[in-house]
């Protein structure tokens, strides 16, 4: 139980207050391949003002020693199940009465319907199944000594229904698309019912693609891949800012806990940077496994703090269940 006690202490205010008041909404935002040095409070040449505002707000707890697995799928499976990646499970907040939504990247199986988000605890899904896709065409390219095939990877699901391909977003940038889809789900969300929204952005995973206006904002960066990457970060940041603004406009912000993290470290061969940490994505050094992570809650966190305790992605499962009001005193036994 020592591990569980530590988990509860890390975000103590959010858990204790959630148990006393009505159940909070939970917005979990995941970036993809975001490096330790890929936020503007670590690298001042970048532009992530919305994230910085959240991270350093008085209602935020930063998790300075937060770790994940070194690749996408192992981290996302641990996040959804609370087990290390060799276990299989499912997301359980729907069983607690939450509306559960997923927007963005799944990457946890799609070879048959039983592996899709709508069969794994999510009522509604808007996004893509594989590890990566085009940011504008939302398609997956298959290569074997050259381009073999290209197919759409953007789908819509509702609880326990078939997957429906969505062609309506072709040409629109994915960060903006995922913000739009999230905001629409929030608008449709009943005000008196709690929700869990897992917003899993494609950014900043390769390929390096972003509208030209964002590249121009970073034209002072000489290295071309880092310049495009900077633009992708800025687009991601603005999308997050739009979703947070929607929470405010819809009177959902005060009772929402916002969690931010990444699935692994940055890919240095595709614009990412983990300085001063050693290694990058797909390595077990800190550059591949240590993330920028924080919890923001205007209602439940009253004083800013930086936690130095070790926190791993498998800990989110029990922590979020506790936030939702479940008694987890015997969790893990």
UniProtKB/TrEMBL annotation:
Cross-referenced CDD domains: 4-S
PROSITE patterns linked to this entry: SULFATASE_2
InterPro entries cross-referenced by the UniProt entry: Alkaline_phosphatase_core_sf, ARSB, Sulfatase_CS, Sulfatase_N
Cofactor requirements of the protein: Ca(2+)
A UniProt-annotated Pfam family: Sulfatase
Keyword terms of this UniProt record: Calcium, Glycoprotein, Hydrolase, Metal-binding, Signal
Residue intervals of the Sulfatase N-terminal domain: 24-325
Gene Ontology molecular-function annotations: metal ion binding; sulfuric ester hydrolase activity
Residues of the signal peptide: 1-18
Family listed: Belongs to the sulfatase family.
Protein name: Sulfatase N-terminal domain-containing protein
